[in-house]
Design brief:
Low-confidence stretches: none
Order of helices and strands: HHHHEEEEHEH
Helix content: 55-70%
Mean pLDDT: 86
Strand content: 5-15%
Structural class: alpha+beta
Number of domains: 2
Number of helices: 6
Length: about 180
């Protein structure tokens, strides 16, 4: 029992000595982390304010806001860790390799995501409009980042991947009626 208490005491002493020897780096890290948090929050508020002024789809706005936030945090952490003396070269290379692996593994998902972004930006159709795409005619119920949901005349719910929609001719029958 005394041996266990001695071992615990030695571990706690080692931890205390480490913190006492490196408290300036830890303090520096905490201050930089707080400053980074404030800066990233301000940038996020600016991006949200920008989207309040333009007419983008809310789904696309939220996606861009989250992407910007994640990207800024990754860049910020790399800069902070490199300034604290960590070798981040391997980490950055690992992120690059991970990006390539994820890209190949999710190419269909990324294709649908990109097509969803194009649909939301270009607005070839909107919710509640009647469209004909990939030989399916119906009313658009939902436009998502990866697929769209269409309700046919037969009351069938059809989910179509965005890459199929964007890669095909889109007939917006509601807009044709409005022009007449």
């Amino acid at each position: 029992m005394i041996e266990i208490l001695t071992a615990i005491s030695e571990i706690l002493t080692a931890i205390r000595d480490y913190f006492l020897g490196h408290y300036t780096k830890l303090l520096y890290f905490i201050v930089i982390l707080l400053v980074g948090y404030v800066l990233i929050s301000l940038i996020n508020k600016y991006v949200a304010h920008f989207f309040n002024k333009v007419d983008f789809d809310r789904t696309l706005e939220l996606f861009i806001e989250k992407t910007v936030k994640i990207f800024l945090w990754i860049i910020f952490l790399i800069v902070v860790l490199s300034n604290l003396g960590f070798n981040v070269t391997g980490f950055v290379a690992g992120l690059g390799a991970l990006g390539i692996i994820i890209g190949f593994a999710t190419k269909d998902v990324l294709s649908n995501l990109a097509a969803g972004i194009f649909i939301l930006i270009n607005k070839p159709f909107r919710i509640r409009e009647t469209i004909e795409v990939v030989k399916i005619t119906g009313v658009v119920k939902e436009i998502g980042m990866s697929s769209c949901i269409i309700i046919t005349k037969e009351k069938e719910v059809v989910t179509i991947p965005n890459s199929k929609i964007w890669g095909s001719p889109i007939k917006n029958l509601s807009r044709l009626k409005k022009k007449k």
